[in-house]
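Please fill in the sequence for the structure shown.

STRUCTURE ENCODING:
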């Protein structure tokens, strides 16, 4: 089976969030089950720098949304890549979606319409001798691929639309429609029209043969008005096509026994060896040594992630006896609030603004617990990394967080199956209450180690999820 994966980011070439981790890990997981996946992504400078000096061009455009472009193929880090090399759209400083100041590029609609059009061309046979059986599009940046296929005039391959976060939809004014190259009939309620404008994600959800989200609970949540972000009506109408398939992680990349980012490698049988990583975290975040729990947050600093709640409750978290190390970036006001909290609680709270892949590994290996206070969370990956590294997840009870963590309530502790702590999302009191539970349980070192070891036994690999994807692909191709 041949699958074309269309995603705007892919680890280890370009990453802003969990989408990159999933898009980067899924090809290898599917390969073990007889599925060949080619991954298509935009030619950002960071991507082009990783390709061979003269990559093979497999398709050319004299004009693609305002400039010449080509599709090149290469194999990098074990990934079979197709890259849209369109300098007028992607060769610019800044990030994947915005400039160096973090502002979205005003022509993002054009950039990702071009990307989607090129992906649809590949899916329709633009590369001689290759045509996929399945097109798997990820999030709004790739969603228009399915609309181009739907209105392309030929029989398209089967299509799957995966929603990693419904909050990001790619909504643009109706004025852009004439430049998309779609027929007039596409500007309709069952096409790309969305509240009078153009909705990229909405178009993909409407056109897809199957829709997946990244956890079963999130698949149920987004059919409700409070989580549906205006798309719950469409998702309920297509509920028979909606599937919740839990994400996994790359357990080779995230392996505490072999991880080169750590000060000390360890296994569940040698948790004492985590101590060197704890000391390294204390040193990096300028935290005073202490016998109480060391908590970490590794996150985008946004409202969705509950970072405003965390910032508001720093005083009470420190008052509980815990310390906190924060790594992340995002909303400038939240960055400032957390930096101010760190200045107010020197030695108890440390904050590094930015993202550092190696440091994120060290935090998982050195902290006692990871706090994830998200208001909603489609799947989440940091709690899976935490399980793998004995960094006990303390999570809001929503989406994939609820699906992957077993709360340390009395029954679960008695049965020896607890892997973390749940609390009600959106509540500062609930977050602080969970931290107090952590402090109490952490004081019993034997019980705490039992929770760590139980978490480290969890299957967080792609094995089960890859089988679910293959089953879905086969059902679509007959």
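FILLED IN BY: designer on duty
SEQUENCE:
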């Amino acid at each position: 089976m041949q699958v074309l994966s269309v995603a705007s980011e892919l680890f280890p070439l370009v990453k802003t969030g969990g989408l990159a981790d999933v898009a980067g890990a899924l090809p290898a997981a599917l390969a073990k089950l007889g599925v060949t996946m080619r991954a298509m992504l935009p030619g950002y400078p960071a991507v082009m720098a990783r390709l061979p000096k003269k990559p093979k061009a497999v398709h050319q455009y004299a004009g693609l949304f305002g400039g010449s472009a080509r599709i090149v193929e290469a194999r990098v880090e074990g990934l079979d890549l197709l890259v849209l090399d369109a300098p007028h759209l992607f060769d610019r400083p800044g990030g994947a979606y915005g400039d160096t100041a973090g502002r979205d590029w005003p022509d993002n609609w054009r950039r990702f319409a071009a990307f989607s059009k090129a992906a649809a061309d590949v899916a329709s046979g633009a590369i001689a001798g290759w045509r996929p059986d399945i097109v798997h599009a990820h999030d709004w940046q790739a969603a228009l691929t399915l609309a181009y296929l739907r209105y392309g005039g030929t029989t398209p391959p089967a299509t799957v639309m995966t929603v990693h976060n419904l909050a990001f939809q790619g909504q643009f004014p109706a004025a852009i429609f004439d430049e998309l190259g779609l027929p007039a009939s596409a500007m309709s309620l069952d096409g790309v029209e969305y509240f009078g404008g153009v909705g990229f994600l909405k178009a993909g959800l409407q056109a897809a043969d199957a829709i997946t989200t990244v956890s079963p609970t999130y698949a149920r949540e987004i059919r409700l008005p409070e989580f549906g972000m205006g798309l719950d009506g469409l998702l309920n109408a297509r509920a028979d096509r909606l599937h919740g398939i839990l994400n996994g992680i790359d357990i080779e990349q995230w392996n505490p026994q072999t991880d080169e980012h750590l000060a000390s490698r360890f296994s569940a049988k040698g948790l004492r060896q985590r101590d060197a990583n704890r000391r390294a975290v204390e040193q990096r975040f300028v935290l005073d040594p202490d016998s109480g729990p060391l908590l970490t947050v590794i996150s985008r600093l946004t409202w969705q992630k509950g970072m405003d709640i965390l910032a508001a409750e720093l005083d009470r978290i420190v008052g509980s006896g815990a310390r906190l190390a924060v790594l992340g970036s995002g909303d400038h006001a939240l960055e400032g609030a957390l930096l101010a909290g760190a200045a107010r609680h020197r030695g108890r709270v440390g904050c590094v603004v930015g993202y550092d892949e190696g440091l994120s590994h060290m935090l998982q290996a050195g902290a006692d617990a990871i706090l994830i206070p998200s208001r909603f969370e489609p799947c989440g990956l940091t709690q899976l990394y935490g399980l793998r590294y004995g960094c006990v997840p303390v999570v809001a009870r929503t989406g994939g967080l609820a699906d992957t963590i077993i709360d340390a309530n009395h029954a679960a502790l008695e049965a020896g199956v607890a892997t973390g702590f749940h609390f009600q999302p959106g509540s500062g009191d609930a977050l602080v209450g969970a931290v107090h539970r952590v402090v109490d349980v952490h004081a019993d070192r034997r019980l705490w180690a039992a929770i760590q070891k139980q978490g480290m036994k969890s299957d967080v690999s792609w094995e089960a999820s890859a089988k679910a994807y293959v089953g879905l692909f086969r059902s679509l191709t007959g």
